[in-house]
Design a protein that fits this description.
Layout lengths: L22 H6 L12 H5 L19 H11 L10 H11 L3 H14 L19 H7 L10 H4 L10 H12 L4 H13 L7 H15 L7 H20 L9 H6 L8 H16 L13 H22 L4 H18 L3 H17 L11 H25 L20 H4 L3 H9 L14 H21 L5 H20 L17 H23 L10 H19 L1 H4 L5 H27 L12 H16 L8 H18 L3 H12 L19 H4 L26 H4 L6 H7 L15
Length: about 750
Amino acid sequence: MQHTQQALPVSQFRRKNGQQSSCENCRKSKLACDHAVPHCGRCVRLKRTETCVYLISPLAKSSSPSNAKSAAVSKRPTKEQNRPSPTAISAAYSLLSPSPLAEVDTARDHARGMGLGRPSSSRPDGLSKMTNWGSIFSDFNIEVEPELSAASLMPGMALPWKEPEILQHATTALAQIPSRTMCEGLLDHALKFPDFGCHEPFLRLLHEGWWEIFEGYFDETSAALNRSERLIERLWINTSNRKIDSFLSGSVEWLQSWTGHNTTWDSLAYLLSAYGSACASLLPSHPLLADCHKGQVCRDLGKGIKACLFICEAQGIFSLNAVNAHASMTLLQNSYDGDDSNHNYANVTNLARLANNLCLSLRSANWCFIQTQLEQKAFHRAFTMDKSIATSSGRPPQLTWRFNQCPLPLDLSDEQLTFTGNDLDLAISVLDSDGWNTGERSYPTSYLRALSMLGRHREEILELTMGPSAEILNNMQSDIVRRLQATYKGLPSRLRYDPSHHAHLAPFDFLNIIFLHLEYHKSIFLLYRLSQVVPLSQNKPLLSSAKAIINVMTMIYTHRDRLGEMFLFFPWAVMSYGTPAAAILAIELLLRPQCLALIANVTEIHPRSEIIQELSVFISCLNSIPTTEGNHAPCRRVAHTLRKIMDQVLESPARTISTARTVSTTSPATDADSAIGLDIDWQVFSTGPCDADYTQLLDPSSWMQMADPLDFRMEDLGLEIPSDAYFSELTDLGDEDITFDNGII
């Protein structure tokens, strides 16, 4: 009886080497088909997928091609041979894969062969692949990673600590730990200038327990080297026995369960991340770095953190220590390699995965108060980092507020988190209804809470970059700015920047208040950078936020002696905040003689002399970045580009008048909605005007790749000066929705 040949998609039977598949050729060559599906095309055509020879000897899983070919030829049934029964196939398959998962598959195949599986129907087997995600990607020639082996999917199966790969990473992690003297100095510095993942009591117990118990393993003796495997084994066992949820309700018991003899690989990664954060904030001339190079120490600590996290991944352990360590590792990498958007986005992807594996965004309060608060701090730290990196890389955030149910951590100090009983109740009683402490002192949690609240609005702004029309954008901009302004003004007064009252603040508080102020103005800056209708010289909110950012950057540079070691925050702030703001002001200053001189009804938003002075000081700031910083090279390129623009702005008046006459001969734009007018983006000189994908404009360093030499004449860009009527319609756009108070929008 002849069987009708069914037309099957060729992409479903594509060889693993990427070539076009041909099941008929496989059959004629007496070879088992090596396709992604576990049967060849001939068996699909004959509806004999249950007895396909590929189930017994798949060619793709053979150790060598020659052995696979001989095995396939020898095991392939001939015309004289009878087809094996389903029971025989199940038995043969169980001999080839003697594992628990294979036993389950054997039972399933046996039940299917005996008619105990799902009911049979006349539906073709090929239709079942229409809902398979792998087949969907294959239809569009998109490569899919190979499926993991059965052994790697077995629950509870972790690599033993004596595996070569585990031993290599464990040895690497232990070898990157500096001496005890340096670690003690780094810890003191980390607690003096803590980051958002730092918890002082936890780090002190972890540091003291580690060096008191395990210091002997780091002596350069043969006995100590022999004991290193015992240390690796102990950390492995402690990590394997660690569960995400602890039944300890007391803070002291909970801290002791992670430190001392109970130290795990993830807690060691957390300790190394504290050392690394402190080292990144040290001056190159610090006494702790007298005998070593700062960048090398940071790289070594980052390598140790990665090795510890790899071991935790191999054991399937996820904890808040791993989340904090991964977040610190991302910042540490930026300190010695510079702000790389691709690396940052990959790191924050893993950070979001760790947070989601722990269900931090959905977790409610449990029986341990300190664990609940530290988990909330870990999530909101990851949440704020996600918004910052999504902004710089021009990609959507991965931890969205829409699916977040994690409350803000209470505004308590690290010491208050360890309180129990009446002491804890008293500390909570002084908080207001929103969780803010009513005193005058701010803690790291205070700034983390404020950043997370501002991050919600940043997420809305990033969503706007993906597509609303110009008509809808104007209304949404006004609404977001009103809510953003209400959030910032609703913060406690001790967290808001006041230029006249910052002299009495400690360096740590002073810098964090500035950080909040910069985040607030950068959100407004990004929101009004979306405006493709309002000319740049008349975009009042954009220019005001850019000028506010530059004012703060020059103020930090002026008070660098007061900030001391905290001034190392400056190189990162220059690239994240100062560079885009300076670019907008420079381009607006460059185009100002070409537009404002021709239109009588338009006035300057900011005096020309102020902008020139601010940019001149900012160029000096860029040139002062030391060569030891990762952002040294891009800062110098920014300074060089800004200097070229300033030279062209300050050239002789004759050249300016000549340029203005040339521009005046161009015809005005006829379609105000389609033309961008004078809204010249600072990236337009490398990517071309009217770039609709705003996500490509969020990278603060991409604008530096302008054409050289710089020639910004309007006719060269193919742009036209809008008419006077066009300016009169757009001059006051949005002013009724935005108020200005002391230079703060």
